[in-house]
Design a protein that fits this description.
Radius of gyration: 20 Å
Strand order of the largest sheet: 1-2-6-3-5-4
CATH superfamily: Metalloenzyme, LuxS/M16 peptidase-like
Shape: globular
């Protein structure tokens, strides 16, 4: 394993050169965060939605014009930012990523819009029996609170999310100490490292979060979810 070092922090770095196509792919993985560390269920998922709003209304239009794909996603133990672009646009893509990481669009009107979207998606998922069964299974097998709600949260938790919660998440988890960088494509490793270190120098150092461990429940029993019949038109 090789590392990038910024202000005394060693950041795991995986690099693979591939010149088959003039494309670059970058992944930033912030470990030891996401749903398993949420104080409010759905917080990490909502923060990834915030990142996917860019920094202003023209942010993603500028990226799309240059065929740059930038997307954030949140799982159970990590939050990822994925970037892919043509080699010629990598500098612009990195500068855009820097803007996003330094000033995500944490605005009340954006949060309210995303809450409405999240609640709509949740309503749709709640009619998906596979989704419901998965959540029930997790809650039964793992009795710890982290498994009692899905990554998206529920109606109550989504409604209670505030800008302050998002700001605290940003402060506690978007930093160098839990970061892994994965980079591949048609570029030279030395130059790539120099470009990445410029980006990483702008992020806060932060404090490394302790990885969590989970044990299976010793008493597992069947659980039946009863849903009211839907009204027919």
């Amino acid at each position: 394993m090789q590392y990038l070092e910024s202000r005394g922090v060693k950041i795991p770095f995986i690099f693979e050169k591939n010149s088959d196509f003039p494309i670059v792919v970058l992944k930033l993985v912030f470990r030891n965060c996401a749903r398993s560390y949420d104080e409010i269920a759905g917080l990490a998922k909502m923060f990834s939605r915030i990142l996917n709003e860019g920094v202003d209304d023209k942010f993603f239009k500028d990226l799309e014009f240059r065929a740059i794909n930038l997307e954030a996603s949140s799982g159970f133990e990590s939050l990822e930012i994925n970037l892919s672009c043509l080699k010629e646009n990598f500098d612009f893509a990195l500068k855009s990523l820097e803007k996003l990481l330094l000033k995500p669009r944490m605005e009340e009107k954006i949060l309210q819009k995303l809450k409405i979207n999240a609640l709509g998606e949740l309503a749709s998922k709640n009619s998906d029996f596979d989704y419901l069964a998965k959540n029930l299974l997790n809650a039964q097998i793992f009795k710890c609170k982290e498994f009692q709600n899905p990554n998206d949260g529920d109606e109550k938790s989504i409604e209670t999310l505030s800008l302050k919660d998002l700001q605290n998440f940003y402060k506690n988890f978007i930093h160098l100490s839990d970061l892994v960088v994965i980079l591949g494509g048609d570029l030279e490793e030395k130059q790539a490292k120099e470009d990445l270190l410029k980006l990483l120098s702008k992020l806060q150092i932060g404090k490394k979060n302790t990885p969590k461990k989970y044990e299976l429940s010793k008493n597992i029993k069947d659980e039946i979810l009863l849903r009211p019949e839907s009204e027919q038109a």
